[in-house]
Specification:
Helix content of chain B: 10-25%
Order of helices and strands of chain B: HHEHEEHEHEHHEEHEEEHEH
Structural class of chain B: alpha+beta
Distance between the termini of chain B: 26 Å
Radius of gyration of chain A: 27 Å
Number of strands of chain A: 11
Helix content of chain A: 40-55%
Oligomer: heterodimer
């Protein structure tokens, strides 16, 4: 059925260990991929350990009860037990693989890539429903053993810290204008502060209560009194066209942003978290900027879009050296799609722009134009979502 | 077409040929073929396996013994989903190639699509890393545990794909062009056309939707969805074994359809043959889709006698007004009191091959609904007409007559349209990319 070439490639695919229970088929190769075939072939030769698990009413002890780190194939056979019909391999309570619905006489198998450690075979219903299974071998290296990734997390942390400092400064200027009742000045200073928040949103969201107070929307608030922060003042400026009574909210916003600034430097970033944060930011563009949901009174959505995109790009940038090493094709695709998104956004750039935002009023962007923007963002998001799995 | 995105010139270091596609897509290609025996294929957490290698487990992964009979072969002389007995459900989508996409990108995607489509028609998930906690699952997952449901995935290429963007101008099948304006057309450009189409048919709507959704996902950055229809209640029988279903006007529709099991008839009316200079398209067909909105409320107020005169058939039995049983041949000459029994403007008279120099098409349509008309509160829905033919001219010829004279026009309106060439089936080892680009 399948072409010989493909078939050979399939057979040359080897399972690479990333972490217990995760599988990465090292089958990246095709016409344009040079140099990895040697390692593929070597890995393909790696031995698969075979373990038999026999289910009885009494238990499900694995045989042998030990295997070297790597690929392990578990064959589960139900000899004669009507009450025990499944067996799974667990890592401290987390199920990694299983074979179920094995009525008496049936057998089946599942294969896993396992790192060094102690696991258990679990068969609910048996009198001894748990048996130990040990995997020997080298301790798996983590990202902390990779200087490039360690550097990436530090670089990202430094960038976030800098952004939050700028958020403090710009929010102070904005809230000062609000408290002084300077409506026009507040209008142009609003976006200047917002953009920094939009860049660091995944980090800010670590503190849900702070994030809610700073960036919550009218519909997030349980009672009208709970609607505070940027968007409440935005509503006052653009919808109510009055800053009356905003003084207390301005003070609160200032205090919350300062509190964020105090806590952010304590955050330790992990590569996968940085990558997933980038995905969240691009998803944000799609769900709350393209839709015009976030800046519903001010309509400076394109500046928020810009902020989210810059935040995502920074996260991707620090991981890029590693990604280029591990998956050059994905690295190139991510870069190309980022550029396409940036170019699509740039079409709406203006100087000084609507409300000094550097962009046009989002209400001027037609439905068809929004759809085009959205499709570009979608494609970028799809690529970004694959980064974590490659670098983790 | 969407408006243009500026052409992005990549940095020099990104001009490598492999920059076109993600490795995950390539990896997917490593899993083509029924039961490709992936050495050491692993099962992740709760995942299914690409190749179950004769495992005797009774896992509900949709490829158990009972499900075997629900698999329609993906590779054959003709594409599945044309002569295949009509399944109950349809999900039909069209796509436009996004600006800046190269021939190589498109070729890569069609390869990927072939692998994914073949896996899904076997009731398997889109191949990839099962259970990698750090990556989004390669398959969206909603078809896990469902039977394959006779899923067929049929690809088609619109006239615009051969416009020179991808060096395909010289490969354009000779009859492939946008349909001319036809009488009473009221087409919405948003619901018409497209560079490519995919017709997914299955007995389970979730299986059909899953197929389209996953192909769309693999196409991010290469194709943008243009329009999509979900069809239910097949409105055509394509084999004598199938009872003729009823359309939303309550009439049996398609009684005199081509019998798709009749190879001679199919060769005569449906399959592109040696008359086509483009050898790659021979054995393929042309797909014409029309979104036909029905004015259901008005129709439901029409008296039964008139409804039957409009169609030329009895509503209850489906028999022609000149007959007793559904399959009785209509007598178009029969008169009563000086008038034709089957009126001069009856739908079946105007559409009959006897009255169109033997012209026939294979109809394979479905009912659709789009909810409620926001302006009137009336129901939106009708017939998502799909037909296959040797040349789109067959449809145009018929529709010129129907659009002008059909009594049914009072109750229907054509609001969307598409024409696509559907290539022939894939041989072993072939994929949609090599087939199209040569």
């Amino acid at each position: 059925m399948n072409p010989a070439a493909t078939h050979r490639r399939v057979l040359a695919c080897a399972a690479t260990v990333i972490a217990a229970g995760m599988l990465l088929t090292a089958c990246g190769g095709d016409k344009g991929d040079k140099g990895s075939s040697g390692t593929d072939a070597k890995a393909a030769g790696a031995k698969t350990s075979k373990v038999t698990i026999t289910i009885t009413d009494k238990g499900c002890a694995p045989s042998p009860a030990k295997a070297p780190a790597g690929t392990v194939k578990f064959t589960v056979a139900n000899k004669n037990s009507a009450k025990v019909t499944e067996a799974e391999l667990q890592d401290h309570g987390k199920m990694l693989g299983e074979k179920e619905n094995l009525t008496p006489g049936l057998s089946g198998d599942f294969t896993l890539n396992l790192d060094k450690g102690t696991y258990s075979v679990y068969c609910p219903g048996a009198s001894t429903n748990r048996s130990a299974f040990t995997v020997t071998g080298a301790v798996k290296k983590t990202w902390k053993d990779d200087p490039q990734l360690v550097a990436a997390t530090q670089q990202y942390g430094t960038w976030i810290d800098g952004e939050v400092k700028q958020l403090v400064t710009t929010t102070a200027a904005f809230t000062a204008a609000v408290k002084a009742g300077k409506l026009d000045e507040a209008k142009t200073l609003y976006g200047k502060a917002r953009v920094h928040y939009e860049r660091i949103e995944p980090t800010a969201e670590i503190w849900g209560d702070l994030d809610g107070r700073i960036d919550g929307r009218a519909d997030d608030a349980a009672t009208p009194a709970d609607f505070t922060g940027f968007h409440r003042i935005e509503q006052a400026i653009w919808q109510q066209k009055s800053l009356a009574g905003m003084g207390k909210l301005a003070d609160q916003l200032n205090a919350d942003v300062k509190s964020l600034n105090d806590q952010v430097p304590t955050v330790e970033y992990q590569p996968a978290v940085i990558a997933n944060g980038a995905t969240d930011l691009v998803n944000e563009i799609q769900s709350s900027k393209i839709t015009g949901e976030e800046e519903r009174y001010s309509h400076i959505d394109l500046l928020d879009f810009d902020g989210n995109l810059a935040g995502a790009n920074e996260a991707v940038d620090v991981l890029m050296p590693t990604l280029k090493r591990k998956d050059p094709a994905l690295a190139a695709e991510v870069t190309q799609r980022y550029q396409a998104t940036a170019a699509a956004l740039k079409k709406y750039a203006a100087t000084p722009g609507y409300e000094d935002s550097g962009y046009v009023d989002y209400r001027k962007v037609t439905a068809a134009q929004r759809r085009t923007l959205s499709q570009t963002v979608d494609a970028y998001a799809e690529s970004v979502s694959k980064i974590a799995g490659k670098i983790a | 077409m969407t408006d243009s995105t500026p052409d992005i010139t990549p940095e020099p270091e990104e001009r490598r040929p492999e920059a076109a596609a993600a490795v995950s897509r390539r990896r997917l290609l490593g899993a083509v073929g029924a039961g490709a025996a992936v050495a050491g294929a692993a099962v992740g957490v709760g995942g299914t396996v690409l190749a179950r290698g004769g495992s005797s487990g009774s896992g509900g992964n949709g490829s158990g013994g009972a499900a075997k009979s629900q698999i329609v072969a993906f590779r054959a002389g003709h594409q599945a989903g044309i002569a295949t007995p009509s399944q109950d459900r349809l999900c039909f989508a069209t796509f436009d190639v996004t600006p800046g996409v190269t021939r190589a990108d498109l070729a890569e995607l069609l390869k990927t699509w072939t692998a994914a489509a073949e896996a899904m028609t076997l009731g398997k998930p889109v191949p990839g890393d099962v259970g990698d906690l750090n990556a989004p699952p390669d398959d969206t997952g909603e078809a896990v545990g469902l039977a394959p449901g006779n899923l067929t995935i049929t690809i088609g290429y619109g006239p615009s794909l051969f416009d020179g963007r991808f060096g395909l101008a010289a490969r354009r099948p000779s009859a492939l062009k946008t349909l001319p304006h036809l009488p009473k057309d009221n087409l919405d450009p948003e619901n018409s056309g497209g560079d490519l189409c995919v017709q997914a048919c299955a007995d389970d709507p979730q299986v059909a939707f899953h197929a389209i959704r996953n192909l769309r996902r693999l196409a991010f950055g290469t194709l943008a969805p243009r329009w999509m229809e979900l069809g239910f209640g097949r409105t055509s029988s394509t084999t004598p074994q199938q009872a003729t279903p009823r359309n939303l006007l309550g009439f049996k529709d398609g009684t005199r359809n081509i019998d798709a099991t009749d190879a001679a008839l199919m060769g005569q009316h449906v399959w592109i043959g040696d008359e086509e200079p483009q050898r790659w398209a021979r054995g393929g067909s042309y797909l014409v889709s029309r979104k036909i909105q029905m004015r259901m409320e008005q129709w439901d107020r029409d008296r039964l006698g008139d409804q039957q005169d409009v169609f030329g058939r009895f509503k209850s039995s489906g028999a022609p007004l000149t007959g007793k049983a559904e399959y009785d041949t209509p007598d178009f000459h029969a008169k009563s009191g000086g008038q034709y029994v089957i009126p001069a403007d009856a739908h079946i008279r105007l559409a009959a091959h006897e009255n169109n120099n033997g012209l026939r098409i294979l109809r394979r349509g479905y009912s659709y609904t789009d909810g409620i008309d926001p302006e009137t509160g009336d129901l939106l829905g009708g017939l998502f007409f799909v037909a296959f033919m040797k040349s789109p001219d067959q449809f145009s010829t018929l529709q010129r007559i129907l659009g002008q004279h059909d009594a049914l026009n009072e109750y229907i309106q054509h609001i969307g349209s598409g024409v696509f060439v559907t290539p022939p089936g894939l041989a072993a080892g072939q994929d949609w990319s090599t087939q199209l680009f040569g």
